[in-house]
Design a protein that fits this description.
The protein is an alpha+beta fold. It has two domains: 84 residues, Nitrile hydratase, beta subunit (Cyclin A, domain 1); 82 residues, SH3 type barrels, CATH 2.30.30. The chain is 29% helix and 15% strand. A five-stranded antiparallel beta sheet has the order 4-3-2-1-5. Helix 2 packs across helix 4.
């Protein structure tokens, strides 16, 4: 979906600073959120990784930018627990206020009322699946990515839309995130690695000699007509 989470290639956010010897968790609450995600899977609240990723995309945009990595997880988990009918927003808010939260604090979660009725159950272990049709592309083919945005989850980032590249690897069939995230079935599609020249993605000011490989699903691609 087109949201604040899709920051790849965006300007104005500064450099990415790598923390040397970064700990797994910076604070104890982050470890607690990680544990909650495992419990949510066991309870059937988080049914697949695509559903969870989309829930993260749906949190409040200001929270996405300020709550940090596990803060985003926490907002997504709250959404999914409410959508599954396990908890109510009023219960969560009341608990937070008993622990010291203020009524006007920024809340990340934005649960959807209809999401709990959809079947997200995985059909088998892992994410590789058989595909009944032959792949449309092969190694060496020139392709162009689709240009339009989508309302739901997708693994085609905005900065790589309407760009030309070359297929450098094929990977067979994999669960299609764009449908799996919404409980619309796994709908496996062929997956490819597409190589893009840096100038295709970032223009003439791109660092010379840069090639970026992106794994992309067949519905994202069309033959490049030149």
């Amino acid at each position: 979906m087109d949201g604040i989470h899709d920051l790849g290639g965006k300007q104005g956010f500064g450099r990415v600073d790598r923390e040397i010897d970064e700990p797994v968790f910076h604070e104890r609450w982050e470890a607690a959120v990680f544990g909650m995600s495992a419990v949510a899977q066991t309870a059937g609240v988080v049914r697949n990784i695509d559903q969870f990723r989309h829930a993260i995309e749906c949190i409040e945009p200001r929270a996405y930018l300020t709550h940090g990595y596990y803060g985003r997880w926490l907002g997504a988990l709250e959404e999914l627990f409410v959508e599954a009918g396990v908890l109510a927003t009023t219960e969560i808010n009341a608990r937070a206020r008993r622990l010291g939260a203020e009524a006007d604090d920024l809340v990340a979660a934005r649960p959807r009322s209809s999401a709990g009725t959809v079947d997200y159950a995985p059909r088998a272990a892992g994410a590789q699946r058989a595909v009944s049709v032959e792949p449309r592309f092969d190694v060496g083919d020139r392709v162009r990515t689709r240009a339009h945005g989508v309302a739901g989850h997708t693994r085609l980032p905005a900065y790589a839309r309407d760009r030309t590249g070359t297929i450098v690897a094929t990977h067979g069939g994999w669960i299609y995130p764009d449908s799996n995230a919404h409980g619309e079935g796994e709908a496996p599609e062929h997956l490819y690695t597409v190589a893009f020249d840096g100038t295709q993605l970032w223009g003439a000011d791109a660092e010379p000699g840069v090639t970026l490989n992106i794994d992309l699903f067949e519905p994202y691609l069309e033959p490049d007509d030149g």
